[in-house]
Specification:
The protein is of the alpha/beta class. It has 15 helices and 14 strands. The chain folds into two domains: 187 residues, von Willebrand factor, type A domain (Rossmann fold, 3-Layer(aba) Sandwich); 184 residues, von Willebrand factor, type A domain (Rossmann fold, 3-Layer(aba) Sandwich), CATH 3.40.50. This is VWFA domain-containing protein.
């Protein structure tokens, strides 16, 4: 089964094509240049880096490169944003000096996080571009590699560890991503580095190249397997090919809505009208929020379309002085989009959320929105009246899935577009969107680490 990208919103389709070539990645080399290597062996290191970069670019990928040497202290050779030409990268590698010094691999990793995995240094992680780090070391680190390695793995940075001669295997295992057989190398001497160039390049491509749907023998015709790149690693998902979706409407029920509530109710009824609602087809739920969220009905409350239509017709405004959209999104993740309340998220049935807001949220929406999207939900947002446009973009799975209109009755002008986006997405397209959200969440975690370190330094903890 293939996804039909033509059914995606035109702006989103353009952004996916433009920002995600067949193979794209930011690759940072962290290279040991301590005294134990020596000048003669360091030439083998230059040769290794040169051949890896040349082989990667020969394959036609959209790669950016950065290089950091480390010994007693790290030193930037060049950042991701320094060179636009691979020839300049290769020339720099071939002419870089040998530093000498101790072996503080942990400090090198921390330096890389703080100085190179940032937008200012040229990282495209916040655009969904995979981040890869290749560490080359020849001996035991004089400091701890575990804390920075854990941060990088939490942020889904793909780590390749290359050990030479006296490198310590358990340190390589701590730094390398899984599976280790594709991310960890340990060679006897520096001249042997040339023997692993081809394998390393193949594994880099395998880590970042999106794969096509696979035909799998013995799978029944209502199912298919799909390899999906999350931007860092490739996972195998099992999708149902039947027309199943779980659709939740989260609507502003505060006093700010007022007399516009009947228009919202009518919009929902028109949205429902063409849907095949049923316990084994499309499940539907409506949640209102103001000071607190409140469920009108869950995904498993009703089993027929007639029951859902009757419930929507009977809805009244929740009321409340404020609108806490952040709390409502958390409620959706922890309650509504769970198996107990009828969600089939564990069965890989697409989870679609339509958010309708009429004012700025009193609480923060960023973290709850990222957590919800990371869980596998695709939000579309509609802002009306006094809604904040930027807030709607933050909550949406992609800015092109966010709409702002002047007033609630004007929603009728875009309701066909909303309906098409929410109901026409295939499982593959949903997984593509969700994968982008997961990478954003991992990048968000990395930024939290950096902020925490800066705060701790300011009060003298480091």
């Amino acid at each position: 089964m293939r996804g039909h990208l033509s059914s995606l919103h035109p702006q989103l389709l353009f952004s996916l094509k433009a920002s995600a070539p067949a193979v794209t990645a930011d690759i940072i080399f962290l290279v040991d240049s301590s005294w134990s290597i020596g000048k003669d062996n360091f030439q083998f290191v230059r040769e290794f880096l040169y051949k890896v970069v040349k082989a990667l670019k020969t394959g036609g990928g959209d790669f950016k490169f950065a290089l950091v040497q480390y010994s007693g202290s790290p030193k930037t050779e060049f950042q991701l944003s320094t060179y636009s030409s691979v020839q300049d990268v290769l020339f720099h590698i071939w002419s870089m000096p040998y530093l000498g010094g101790g072996t503080r691999t942990g400090l090198g990793l921390e330096y890389l996080i703080e100085q190179h995995l940032t937008a200012a240094a040229g990282s495209r992680a916040n655009e969904g571009v995979p981040q890869l780090v290749v560490v080359l070391t020849d001996g035991r680190s004089q400091d701890d590699v575990i804390p920075p390695s854990s941060v990088l793995q939490l942020a889904d940075v793909d780590m390749f560890a290359v050990g030479v001669h006296h490198a310590v295997e358990w340190e390589l295992k701590e730094m390398a991503s899984k599976p280790l057989e594709r991310h960890m190398y340990n060679v006897a001497n520096f001249s042997a580095l040339r023997d692993i160039v081809g394998d390393l390049v193949d594994n880099v491509y395998a880590a970042v190249a999106p794969s096509a749907p696979a035909e799998v023998a013995g799978v029944n015709s209502d199912q298919c397997f799909l390899h999906v790149s999350t931007g860092i690693s490739t996972h195998l998902f099992l999708f149902s090919s039947t027309d199943q979706k779980d659709i939740v409407f989260l609507i502003d029920g505060s006093n700010n809505v007022g007399d516009d509530f009947p228009s919202i109710r009518d919009f929902i009824l028109r949205f429902i009208e063409p849907l095949d609602i049923g316990i084994d087809q499309i499940r539907f739920s409506v949640i209102q929020y103001s000071d607190q969220p409140n469920a009108n009905f869950y995904l498993n409350t009703y089993s027929t379309k007639e029951q859902v239509v009757s419930a929507v017709n009977g809805m009244t405004l929740l009321q409340g002085d404020s609108a806490n959209l952040g709390a409502a999104l958390t409620f959706l993740k922890d309650t509504v989009f769970t198996q107990t309340y009828g969600s089939r998220i564990s069965e890989k049935v697409p989870q679609i959320l339509v958010v309708l807001s009429t004012q700025r949220s009193r609480d923060s929406v960023r973290s709850p929105a990222i957590a919800l999207k990371t869980a596998g939900v695709v939000p579309l947002t509609i802002g009306a009246k006094n809604a904040n446009a930027n807030e709607m973009k933050i909550v949406a799975i992609d800015p092109s899935y966010s709409f702002v209109v002047s007033d609630v009755p004007v929603i009728s002008a875009i309701e066909q577009q909303i309906s098409s986006l929410a109901t026409a997405l295939t499982a593959e397209e949903v997984e593509t969107l969700v994968s982008k959200g997961k990478l954003t969440f991992n990048w968000f975690l990395l930024q939290l680490h950096l902020l925490s370190k800066k705060a701790n330094k300011s009060i003298g903890l480091f």
